[in-house]
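Weekly sync, protein design subgroup
Attendees: M.S., D.O., the rotation student, P.L. (late)

Item 1: inverse folding check
M.S. brought a backbone from last month's batch and wanted to see whether the design step gives back something sensible before we order anything. D.O. pointed out we never logged the input encoding, so this time it goes straight into the notes. C-alpha coordinates as presented (179 positions):
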Protein backbone atom coordinates (compact mmCIF):
# COMPACT_ATOMS: atom_id res chain seq x y z
CA UNK A 1 0.00 0.00 0.00
CA UNK A 2 2.83 2.42 0.84
CA UNK A 3 4.41 1.70 -2.53
CA UNK A 4 1.21 2.80 -4.29
CA UNK A 5 1.24 6.13 -2.45
CA UNK A 6 4.94 6.64 -3.08
CA UNK A 7 4.48 5.88 -6.78
CA UNK A 8 1.59 8.34 -6.97
CA UNK A 9 3.65 11.08 -5.32
CA UNK A 10 6.56 10.46 -7.68
CA UNK A 11 4.22 10.61 -10.70
CA UNK A 12 2.72 13.88 -9.44
CA UNK A 13 6.20 15.35 -9.02
CA UNK A 14 7.26 14.27 -12.50
CA UNK A 15 4.13 15.80 -14.01
CA UNK A 16 4.59 19.05 -12.10
CA UNK A 17 8.34 19.42 -12.69
CA UNK A 18 7.78 19.34 -16.45
CA UNK A 19 6.21 22.81 -16.31
CA UNK A 20 8.29 25.88 -17.14
CA UNK A 21 8.53 28.83 -14.71
CA UNK A 22 8.18 31.41 -17.49
CA UNK A 23 5.04 31.84 -19.55
CA UNK A 24 5.68 31.14 -23.24
CA UNK A 25 4.17 34.19 -24.94
CA UNK A 26 4.58 37.91 -24.32
CA UNK A 27 0.83 38.11 -23.62
CA UNK A 28 1.08 35.36 -21.00
CA UNK A 29 4.06 37.10 -19.39
CA UNK A 30 2.15 40.38 -19.23
CA UNK A 31 -0.88 38.54 -17.80
CA UNK A 32 1.05 36.86 -14.95
CA UNK A 33 2.64 40.21 -14.08
CA UNK A 34 -0.81 41.86 -13.94
CA UNK A 35 -2.11 38.98 -11.81
CA UNK A 36 0.92 39.31 -9.52
CA UNK A 37 0.39 43.07 -9.13
CA UNK A 38 -3.33 42.55 -8.47
CA UNK A 39 -2.72 39.84 -5.86
CA UNK A 40 -0.08 42.00 -4.20
CA UNK A 41 -2.44 44.99 -4.04
CA UNK A 42 -5.20 42.81 -2.52
CA UNK A 43 -2.80 41.37 0.06
CA UNK A 44 -1.65 44.87 1.04
CA UNK A 45 -5.29 45.98 1.41
CA UNK A 46 -5.99 42.96 3.64
CA UNK A 47 -2.90 43.65 5.74
CA UNK A 48 -1.46 47.16 5.49
CA UNK A 49 1.52 46.11 7.65
CA UNK A 50 2.63 43.98 4.68
CA UNK A 51 3.56 47.17 2.78
CA UNK A 52 6.41 48.05 5.15
CA UNK A 53 7.48 44.41 5.47
CA UNK A 54 7.87 44.03 1.69
CA UNK A 55 9.46 47.47 1.30
CA UNK A 56 12.22 46.35 3.68
CA UNK A 57 12.62 42.91 2.05
CA UNK A 58 15.42 42.30 -0.45
CA UNK A 59 12.84 40.78 -2.77
CA UNK A 60 9.64 38.79 -2.85
CA UNK A 61 7.90 36.22 -5.02
CA UNK A 62 4.16 36.48 -5.59
CA UNK A 63 2.15 33.45 -6.70
CA UNK A 64 -1.29 34.91 -7.47
CA UNK A 65 -3.11 31.59 -7.74
CA UNK A 66 -1.80 28.28 -6.50
CA UNK A 67 -4.17 25.40 -7.21
CA UNK A 68 -4.07 22.48 -4.82
CA UNK A 69 -5.98 19.22 -4.85
CA UNK A 70 -5.79 15.87 -3.13
CA UNK A 71 -7.34 12.54 -2.46
CA UNK A 72 -4.80 10.98 -0.05
CA UNK A 73 -2.01 12.00 -2.43
CA UNK A 74 -1.95 15.65 -3.39
CA UNK A 75 -0.25 18.21 -5.50
CA UNK A 76 -0.18 21.92 -6.08
CA UNK A 77 1.10 24.20 -8.81
CA UNK A 78 1.25 27.92 -9.42
CA UNK A 79 3.14 30.45 -11.52
CA UNK A 80 4.40 33.72 -10.13
CA UNK A 81 6.59 36.78 -10.41
CA UNK A 82 9.78 37.66 -8.55
CA UNK A 83 10.16 41.29 -7.51
CA UNK A 84 13.28 43.20 -6.48
CA UNK A 85 13.05 46.88 -5.50
CA UNK A 86 9.34 46.74 -6.36
CA UNK A 87 10.04 45.75 -9.99
CA UNK A 88 9.31 42.41 -11.67
CA UNK A 89 12.65 40.78 -12.53
CA UNK A 90 11.61 37.23 -13.46
CA UNK A 91 9.10 34.43 -13.43
CA UNK A 92 8.84 31.55 -11.02
CA UNK A 93 6.77 28.50 -10.37
CA UNK A 94 5.85 26.48 -7.31
CA UNK A 95 5.30 22.72 -7.24
CA UNK A 96 4.22 20.69 -4.27
CA UNK A 97 3.53 17.04 -3.61
CA UNK A 98 2.03 15.71 -0.39
CA UNK A 99 1.02 12.40 1.05
CA UNK A 100 -1.26 11.78 4.00
CA UNK A 101 -4.82 12.26 5.15
CA UNK A 102 -6.17 14.92 2.79
CA UNK A 103 -9.22 15.48 0.63
CA UNK A 104 -10.45 18.40 -1.44
CA UNK A 105 -9.18 21.30 -3.42
CA UNK A 106 -8.37 24.94 -2.92
CA UNK A 107 -6.80 27.96 -4.53
CA UNK A 108 -4.68 30.44 -2.64
CA UNK A 109 -2.18 33.25 -3.08
CA UNK A 110 1.34 32.79 -1.69
CA UNK A 111 3.90 35.53 -1.11
CA UNK A 112 7.46 34.70 -0.12
CA UNK A 113 9.60 37.56 1.22
CA UNK A 114 13.39 37.28 1.19
CA UNK A 115 15.43 38.96 3.91
CA UNK A 116 18.73 39.46 2.08
CA UNK A 117 20.07 39.70 -1.47
CA UNK A 118 21.77 36.33 -0.87
CA UNK A 119 18.36 34.79 -0.09
CA UNK A 120 16.96 36.20 -3.35
CA UNK A 121 19.98 34.94 -5.29
CA UNK A 122 19.57 31.46 -3.81
CA UNK A 123 15.91 31.44 -4.88
CA UNK A 124 17.04 32.31 -8.41
CA UNK A 125 19.28 29.22 -8.58
CA UNK A 126 16.25 26.94 -8.81
CA UNK A 127 17.49 24.88 -5.86
CA UNK A 128 15.24 26.64 -3.36
CA UNK A 129 12.70 24.42 -1.57
CA UNK A 130 10.65 24.28 1.61
CA UNK A 131 10.50 21.14 3.66
CA UNK A 132 7.44 19.83 5.44
CA UNK A 133 8.24 21.97 8.49
CA UNK A 134 7.83 25.34 6.72
CA UNK A 135 5.00 27.48 8.05
CA UNK A 136 3.03 30.28 6.48
CA UNK A 137 1.23 33.25 7.99
CA UNK A 138 -2.37 33.83 6.90
CA UNK A 139 -2.76 37.42 5.74
CA UNK A 140 -5.19 39.42 7.83
CA UNK A 141 -5.01 42.84 9.45
CA UNK A 142 -1.55 43.46 10.98
CA UNK A 143 -0.35 39.87 10.55
CA UNK A 144 2.89 41.02 8.88
CA UNK A 145 3.64 43.34 11.80
CA UNK A 146 4.46 40.32 13.98
CA UNK A 147 6.33 38.15 11.46
CA UNK A 148 10.01 37.27 11.67
CA UNK A 149 12.12 35.71 8.95
CA UNK A 150 12.95 32.03 9.31
CA UNK A 151 16.17 31.06 7.50
CA UNK A 152 15.93 34.25 5.44
CA UNK A 153 12.33 33.86 4.27
CA UNK A 154 8.84 34.72 5.44
CA UNK A 155 5.79 33.13 3.82
CA UNK A 156 2.32 34.64 3.63
CA UNK A 157 -0.83 33.01 2.25
CA UNK A 158 -4.26 34.32 1.38
CA UNK A 159 -7.18 32.01 0.58
CA UNK A 160 -8.88 32.58 -2.74
CA UNK A 161 -11.37 29.73 -2.87
CA UNK A 162 -11.92 26.13 -1.95
CA UNK A 163 -12.15 23.84 0.99
CA UNK A 164 -9.57 21.31 1.98
CA UNK A 165 -9.07 18.93 4.85
CA UNK A 166 -5.42 18.09 5.30
CA UNK A 167 -3.05 16.32 7.65
CA UNK A 168 -0.19 15.61 5.28
CA UNK A 169 3.55 15.74 4.78
CA UNK A 170 5.14 17.38 1.77
CA UNK A 171 7.28 20.21 0.56
CA UNK A 172 7.40 22.96 -2.02
CA UNK A 173 9.99 23.34 -4.78
CA UNK A 174 10.48 26.44 -6.87
CA UNK A 175 11.78 27.22 -10.33
CA UNK A 176 12.96 30.58 -11.67
CA UNK A 177 13.64 32.20 -15.01
CA UNK A 178 14.86 35.79 -15.47
CA UNK A 179 12.72 38.21 -17.44
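Designed sequence read out in the meeting:
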Amino acid sequence: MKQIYLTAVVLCLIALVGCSPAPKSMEAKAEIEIEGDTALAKAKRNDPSLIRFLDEAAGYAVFPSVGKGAIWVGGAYGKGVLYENGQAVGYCDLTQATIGLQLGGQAYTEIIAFQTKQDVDYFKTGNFAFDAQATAVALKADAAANVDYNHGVAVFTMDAAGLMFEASVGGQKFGYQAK
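Discussion: Residues 2-178 form one domain. The mean pLDDT is 79.
Action: P.L. to compare against the previous round before Friday.
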